[in-house]
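Comment thread on ticket #2218

A.B. wrote:
> Attaching the input chain for the structure job we discussed in standup.
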Amino acid sequence: MNQSVIKATPRAQTTKGELNQLRAKGQIPAVIYGGGDAATHVFLDEKEFLKVAAGISESTILGIEIGGVKKRAFVKARQRNSITTKIIHVDFLEVVSGRLLHARVPLRLVGIPVGVREGGVLENPAHEIEVECDPDNLPEGIDVDVSELHANHSIHVRELKIGGKIKVLSSPELVVALVKFIKEEVVEAPVVAAAPVEGAAPVAGAPGAPGAPGAAAPAAGATAATAAPAKKEDKK
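C.D. wrote:
> Ran it. Output below, let me know if you need it in another format.
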């Protein structure tokens, strides 16, 4: 694994005003601690640090060269100016070979799942896992092959291919990738009442039909819809 190296210069005790002057000249104050010795205070070149540290993760170990002495460390914290957002201080956590460390390693999904080709959607609930290992065995990322992942199936931490020198601290049941089908929403068409057909008899009980609530009474003198049966003449 190629390791990026940043050159640093030792930093003596400095006043706040002197620190601000050095920041204006492109120097970033930093401290390296956690290696077992006393903390080391240094200055970093701003342009070099921004170039090397662009896109690194929490599990990326950087080399820091101080006057011919090389240390290895994580970028633990970056303090920024609240107005300009420029980095004004960096904390490094030193790592030592042979001493186990805890770190969060990012997961990288590789491939196009079968389920996605079938119309599903790939989800990535967990973007990193926590591990314990020697600094020499710490990966910058773990690739997760999702190309054979079918719809309604998932990949758990227990299924990841990780070297035997790395102990996984995250739950083995943690889901790192799955493919879901999106249910289509069924939209019902509105029911439209049919227009009455000209000349058709009104439906019983329908509005406006005889005997229906609100129907108009027949006008006086109007002919009844049903005639009374005619009387038969007596034949003498």
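A.B. wrote:
> Thanks. Noting for the ticket: The radius of gyration is 40 Å.
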